[in-house]
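[job 4471] stage=fold_predict status=RUNNING
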Amino acid sequence: MRTVMLLCFFLLFLNCEDKQTKKKTTPKVQVEKTSKEVKKDLVVEPEREFPKLDSKSAMEFFLEYDKHHKENKVRITTDFGEIDILLYNETKFHRSNFIWLTKQKYFNGTQFYRVIDNFIVQAGNSDDVKTARKRAHIGKYLLPPDTKRGFKHNRGVISMPSSEIRNPHKLASPFEFFIVCQKGGAHFLDGDYTIFGHVTRGMNIVDKIAAVKTDNGDWPDKNIFIRNVEILH
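[job 4471] inference complete, writing structure tokens
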């Protein structure tokens, strides 16, 4: 009997020792992160290439931007064809603004939203929420008029409309532009809106856009998109 008890005690001791050994040598299993947690660790908010602009910072920004970005030729590809434009160095804030927005791909996907035959075609806006998001990312700002350079609203010039908000100084909406297609020009606009370039090729495309059917608000019955705006060298 004593022998049996000793044997049982010995086996119990070995079993306990074995459990202690396994407890020490078994590695801890690290709980795997869920896919959401992994993505959260990996996704880093990209830094802004440019600051978000407002009316106070825009002028200083474009003054500096003008020193390093001298491009002045652009091509606007529309649903009706291509329009090439030369931007004036004399109106440097408006030229720089247009070049900057072009490089930000702002105009791509916007529309010719106001069309009046033998007067103007106006573009740079859209009823698409993506355009509103682009504007929100870029910032809310206006540009002061620059109307004393001697430029006239002749046929083919590109000019910048006033903001929709009431402002006695006719501050310009930086996201929009219009091209004069009126024969003989629209000189009653002189002095109120900033001319910052003119069409060098594609006035036939402008005239085609101007001739489309529109609703009571001058919006084309069939949307006319700007598919791409690019810098020409």
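[job 4471] summary: The beta strands are 53-54, 73-78, 81-87, 111-116, 120-125, 139-140, 157-160, 177-180, 194-201, 226-231.
[job 4471] exit 0
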